[in-house]
Amino acid sequence: MIKKILSGRIISREALEKEKSIYCEKYRMREYLNNPEILNSANDSERAEILKILQKKPSRTYAGVTVIACMTMPARCPHGKCAYCPGGVEIDIPQSYTGKEPSTMRGIQCHFDSYLETTSRLYQYHKLGHAIDKIELIIMGGTLPAQDIDYMEYFSKRCIQAMNEFYENLKIIEKSGEEKFTEKYNDDKNRSDGGKFRKFHYQEEIQRANEKAKIRCVGLTFESRPDYAKKEEILGMLKCGATRVEMGVQSPYDFIYSIVDRGHTVQDVIESTALLKDYGLKVCYHMMPGLLGNSEYSRALDFRGFGKIVTDENFMPDMLKIYPTLIIKGTKFHDEYIKGNFEPLTTENAVRLITDVMAALPKWVRVMRVMRDIPAYMIEAGIKTSNLEQLVDKKLKAGNLKCMEIRHREVRNENIDFDNIRLLREEYNASKGREIFLSYEDIENDLLIGFLRLRTPSNFNKTKNVFVRELHIYGKEVKIGEKAKADEIQHRGFGGNLLAEAERISCEEFDAKKISVMSGIGAREYYRKFNYKKEKFWMVKNLS
Questions:
Q1: Fewer CB within 10 A of the terminal residue: the chain, N end or C end?
Q2: What is the residue range of 535's domain?
Q3: Are 96 and 86 in contact (CB under 8 A)?
Q4: Rounded CA gap, 162 and 168, in Å?
Q5: Residue 263, class by beta-carbon neighbours within 10 Å (0-12 exposed, 13-18 middle, 19+ buried)?
Q6: Per the structure, how many domains does the chain have?
């Protein structure tokens, strides 16, 4: 099988599956031959070549990192429950989740143990041949910052510890299997010294180890509510290594918050957004069109709401997740739907609305997701299609509508003519500060190579400190320490050049005295190469 791939006799996934069927029939195999088995039979040089055919979902690492989502244990939201919100402690499911999302099911299977969740996901990626040395960790499960700070620190710490210890644990898994590993892990619960897996380590110790680990946490995201993303909560998240906060904003209108029992105000959104940015964090809004239903008025208000958050300087998030309102059993909206009082947004109208939104977004926004990962059978009414994002893309193309948002333009596996790449700049005011969006782009093919977000915070005149809130280079993930191949984008110096330009702007145009980078734990070594030093939660460089 490997020889046929290397010789060019198997050149597609379809041809591979056909050959696997023939192979299994010929050798009368009891179980179907899977790709990890083929990968494990190849040597290092062969693996690099056959991965092009074998690897499932290579797009998972086209953003330059590998994402792992870990689910926290069920806990009550401090304000109660929103009208659309499924899950909850009464059914032992994290609030706002159904229990059937992949990350939730993994959490349940691992008893919401973040060490096991992280290890399990890393092993899945490893088996499929993905690079796993740059991890973007997303900690999910409702309003974690509203829970006990010790739990938040412990949960996040154990995720990172699992990264540090993965290759050691991999030896056990490959020798004895995942179930045996889990048994060994659980046996340590009863040991007074914590045993091999649960021995106590300080958070700072684990983070320092991750800075030079084989698997590094280069980004850490927390989910929260706008009323629980204020100074106290932000400092707690920063201590854990946060680089991004995702907030359930849903809508920019107070009267809608009242209707859906949201429990916070638009002013909370404005205040939290400004604070998060001024601490150097990236900000993602979860938006929920259709909260007023499927009427023409509701859709028009939703469109204006999206326009408001990307043009009103009080908002202007860096990223969006668009989750149309769905009718799920056990929610107040479901009760109203059964009574005939609520008509949810239809697929057709959702596609039309989101297409119009996407076409109107500025180039500095990234839409990270469209539609929640909820199985269709759990949706009582509303959008049941799982390919809503693809339908939107199709409508954009059919209407010849240009989409400027980041995800539509980021380079993936395209061939790049490096002579076409230019450094571009866009500026805008946001949350009482100034944002500079620097980007390297292939101007001929409208492809985004990478970008940097530079911010002068609201208190800049007092501190003379600017923030690099994000630096990201796209393309297939290249392992730490390796040089880029001819068709790879990462590790070509684009990041260093963007950083140098940010420093120049900070000095020459803003007269800044200090530049602080919101670096992921595992990216701190990268910034040390440019003479940055760790200071509190940031990597810092004096400019004067």
A1: C
A2: 418-542
A3: yes
A4: 10
A5: middle
A6: 4
